[in-house]
Structure formats: C-alpha cells, structure tokens
Design brief:
Elements (H helix, E strand, L loop, with lengths): L29 H17 L3 E3 L6 E3 L10 H33 L7 H11 L22 E6 L16 H18 L3 E5 L13 E8 L12 E4 L6 H19 L10 H4 L13 E8 L4 H6 L1 H16 L12
Parallel strand pairs: 3-4, 3-5, 5-7
Antiparallel strand pairs: 1-2, 6-7
Helix pairs in contact: 1-2, 4-8, 5-8
Length: 328
C-alpha cells in the first residue's frame, strides 16, 4: 500500500585504542579493565548530553572535561556515539525493508481483515457511508423507480469468448432475473440499452448498469466482481452507500470476492453517469470474469441476480452491512 560522522576532538590527534596502554606506567589488571569498561559504558549511555559547539562542526559535553592526561571520556563518548549511530542505521534499514515488502506483497496474499482496513484507509468515507443520512430528493422524484442498463445491449456483443459465449448473453440473463425479482418486491423496474436515449436526464431512485469482465486469462487472481458508483458532490453519501451495499450483499450471496483492486476509470467515468439526472444515484457492476468465473456466470445467473437485488434493497432501505470495509 511507497510497495555523518563528526570529529570529536578539537585538534586532530592520532587515534588510540582505549585498551592501549602505551606511555602508561603499569599494565592494569584484567579485572580493572573490565570494571573500567563497564563504568564507561554506563556513563556514555546515561551521563553524556551532547550539544553543538559554537566554533564549528564538533560536539562537546555539557559535563566538565576530565583533567589533562585522562582522555578516557572522549574515547568513551566516541564509542557511545558510534553505538547510537549503528542502532539508528539498523532501525532505518528495518523500516525501509518493511515498507518495500508491504508495497511488493500482492493484495491476494494479505489477510482479509488487513485488506479491509487498507481499503478503508484509502477511502475513509466508506466506513461511515451506511450511517449517513441519504441526500434529500426533490418532491415527486420517482424514488421507487429503478433502471437497469443491460451492458452492450443495442450496441454490440461485448467480450466474446473462444467458446462463443458473449458478455451480452450473460448480462441479459442476470438483468432479466433481477428485474423480475425487483418487480415482485414492488419496484417499478425497466431494462435499458447501453446507449438508450432515455438515459438523458433519466430520473430514478437508482440506476445500475450490469456488465461482465474479460474472457481472457489474466492471472489466477482475475476472479470476482467489481462495483463503482457515479461520483457527485451532492450525492457522495448515496454513492458510498450503494457501493457498500452491493459489495457486501453480492459477495455474501454469490461467494465471489470483491476485486476492488482492478476498478477502472471506464467504470468510475461510465458514460451514463454524465447523462442522467443529477439526483439519480447510479452505479455499475462487473458481475464476474468471463474466464475464471464462467461456470457461475452461465450456470447460475439467478444467484447473481439475487446478490444484485439484495444489494439494491440494502441501498433503497438504508440497511447496514456486516462489515463497513471492503470484502476480501
């Protein structure tokens, strides 16, 4: 989901190991050396507070310097600073590595809950969509009317598979089942062509266009459905509620996953969105991939219609969803 060292001494001096005993009278006992190292480390970690010198790029201690002939504090301070820089570098490399790994890792490998939270973060308004008050409609607006665009009908066949199956055939079967079920529920429902002249200024409580995705094999992850809504400053709550309702109900009923990663500009800028009345909430759904999902698309169109109808009912009645995030 983007996947300097400072000179410590004021004057250059030959570097000398803190365990070198040249120019000293006697060699300290090993126990003394160990004790000195322990004390020095403690002082370096807990007692030294460094501030920039006014004279330049060096560093100095707020504590008083040790007397001449006892250079131990500067050497220990250098060790402390080197230790801190090493730790800082290790932490920085770890953060960069984790970030690159998270960006590289495909969404299909992530746990479902993590995918849900990432999708919410990308669009926080979705988490509040179903608790928002629907945008008011003009008096007399046909709120019980639903328009269903049969993708490609009256224009072309849409995608054509190697076995002769066409997208138009799949879209028509699902749309017809959805129309019958919604009519039984008391809605006024009409099927529309892809470029139906009635779309200009179309007024309805909801307009939904039904399509299916590519016949071509893309990869093993190219399975599932996608849904997008017409974006509008005046109906942003309605659009969010529509997407959430359909995504939740369709996934739960059909068992297909919400392939939100591949929602395209062709969906979000669907031509009908700019033709209809501004007060008409509209959306588009790709009900499945004609390649990997072909079995359910052809053998059980009524089940797919049940998922769409349940999503529309959820939106029209302002129902809640089981998880306001994106379905895995």
């Amino acid at each position: 989901m983007s996947r300097e060292m400072h000179q410590l001494d004021d004057e250059p001096k030959p570097r000398q190991s803190r365990f070198s005993f040249e120019n000293q009278g006697t060699e300290p006992e090993p126990e003394q050396v160990r004790r000195e190292a322990s004390i020095d480390a403690d002082e370096a970690m807990h007692s030294q507070v460094w501030t920039p010198e006014t004279s330049g790029g060096g560093l100095t201690s707020r504590r008083e310097a040790h007397p001449e002939g006892a250079p131990r504090s500067k050497q220990v301070s250098g060790s402390g600073r080197l230790f801190a820089q090493v730790i800082s570098s290790v932490i920085g490399v770890g953060v960069i590595t984790a970030t690159l790994f998270s960006l590289w890792m495909p969404g299909s490998l992530m746990p479902g809950n993590l995918q849900n939270r990432m999708a919410q973060a990308a669009n926080p308004s979705q988490a509040e969509a179903l608790t928002a008050t629907p945008a008011p409609l003009p008096l007399g607006f046909p709120v019980k009317k639903i328009g269903i665009v049969v993708g490609h009908r009256g224009s072309d066949s849409g995608a054509v598979c190697s076995n002769g199956l066409t997208e138009l055939e799949v879209n028509s079967n699902v749309a017809t089942f959805a129309q019958m079920k919604l009519i039984d529920m008391g809605y006024d429902v009409e099927l529309l062509d892809e470029f139906d002249p009635r779309l200009k200024g179309y007024q309805a409580g909801l307009l939904l266009s039904i399509h299916a995705d590519s016949c071509d094999y893309i990869n093993d992850s190219a399975t599932g459905f996608k849904v997008a809504a017409a974006l509008s400053e005046t109906k942003s709550e309605n659009s969010s509620r529509l997407v959430q309702c359909i995504a939740d109900r369709y996934a739960n009923i059909t068992g297909l996953r919400y392939h939100y990663q591949s929602v395209t500009n062709d969906m979000t800028r669907y031509h009908a969105f700019s033709e209809i009345d501004p007060n008409t909430t509209a959306g588009i759904i790709e009900i499945g991939f004609l390649n990997l999902d072909q079995a359910i698309l052809t053998s059980n169109p009524e089940l797919l219609a049940d998922g769409i109808v349940a999503g529309i009912k959820c939106y029209m009645n302002n129902e809640g969803v089981s998880d306001p995030g994106t379905q895995p």
